[in-house]
């Protein structure tokens, strides 16, 4: 008989963890760009074009899945199950196909991540469409469902793509909760309900098990998470080593991993959507000023210097335009963020704007020594420059002139790196 607690297992800390998983993310991005695709069987992948013989499905919408199309499926098999609408316009069972556009998807993902970092105490980005949030200090279990709904609704309202959210005291249970009621699901598993929620889940779905280990567990008579939770943990360790200990904990809802960031952020940004495209450019400028102030303040609070300042402007129908200006060295200059943002934004004075954003990037978290571009004027021939001064270019005679070293993406479409 297994004891109630594995030998040496730490007492679990009662945390509130959200797992946010975007629903059919690539397909959702394509629908954001082409609203007419809503409700249509949609496949995003490569290899379906004329002359192409090799390719695979990256994402299939839920409508396409009803025809047997799945992610990672060979594109040839997908086309057999779901012919292209472009080639079979009269076929009611034909679907839409779109090529993968990672630049666009990363741009949309950046919008989502901005919201998550704003709402979470700590955020762990797992992939382009998935993240964990620790919100223990932001809410409590009595209102956790409302908080999670707020997260999901902000993503839907401000970015325009659907998400499923799972809430639990640990990461692995939160992930299972987000998968439980897709699409646009919201499942909350309070601490007292974790074991009951996990018990019927198939062993292959337990986070970290995988198909090979699932077969090995089934050989031991373990079919569900409940079976795994009731198994003798010492038998699991003998069979799988320390991995067995981890899986036993996860099946019992005692995944004690902390939600930790995967690394320092590469950029900081804020964006804001209008209630429809607006031609009031002064309104756009005023909103950008507010965003610039917020971004600069966030960088200061995080002890981050930045080498690049940029803006993002979304125009109808959903054209993403980015402009960026590089500086000769890392700075912490809130006034400069606003100044350069306004300068870059001027190009769009005659455009109707759906969304505007401000970003600082190429971040430097080294020890703070000098936070003003004035320092780039040089400090004499004795070589006693600060870290920022040593990285500055020689032609930085004045603060404004030094900010003139510029790299712009004039086509506004392909260079989304600053907003990844």
The average pLDDT value, as a whole number, equals 82
Cα end-to-end separation:
51 Å
Q: What name goes with the CATH superfamily of the largest domain?
A: Reverse transcriptase/Diguanylate cyclase domain
- CATH topology term of the largest domain: Alpha-Beta Plaits
Secondary-structure content class: alpha+beta
% residues in beta strands: 15-25%
Q: Describe the main β-sheet briefly.
A: 5 strands, mixed
* Amount of helix: 25-40%
CATH architecture annotation of the largest domain:
2-Layer Sandwich
User: How many domains would you count in the coordinates?
Assistant: 3
Total count of helical runs of at least 4 residues = 15
Helix and strand string, N-terminal first? EHEEHHEHEEHEHEHHHHHEHEEHEHH
Shape: globular
Low-confidence sequence ranges: 1-12, 368-420
Q: What topology, given as strand order, has the largest sheet?
A: 5-6-1-7-8
The number of strands is 12
Describe this structure in words.
The protein has 420 residues and is α+β, with helices and mostly antiparallel strands. The protein folds into three domains: 17-23 and 105-251, 2-Layer Sandwich (Alpha-Beta Plaits), CATH 3.30.70.270; 41-94, 3-Layer(aba) Sandwich (MutS, DNA mismatch repair protein, domain I); 267-419, Dna Ligase, domain 1, CATH 3.30.1490.100. Helices cover 34% and strands 20% of the residues. It is built from 15 helices and twelve strands. It has helices at residues 25-33, 62-65, 75-81, 102-119, 144-158, 171-179, 194-198, 210-219, 225-230, 233-240, 242-251, 281-301, 334-345, 387-390, 399-402, and strands at 17-22, 42-45, 57-60, 96-99, 122-127, 130-134, 163-168, 186-188, 267-278, 305-315, 319-331, 353-364. A five-stranded mixed beta sheet has the order 5-6-1-7-8. Strand 10 and strand 11 form a beta hairpin. Helix 10 (233-240) crosses helix 11. The chain is globular.
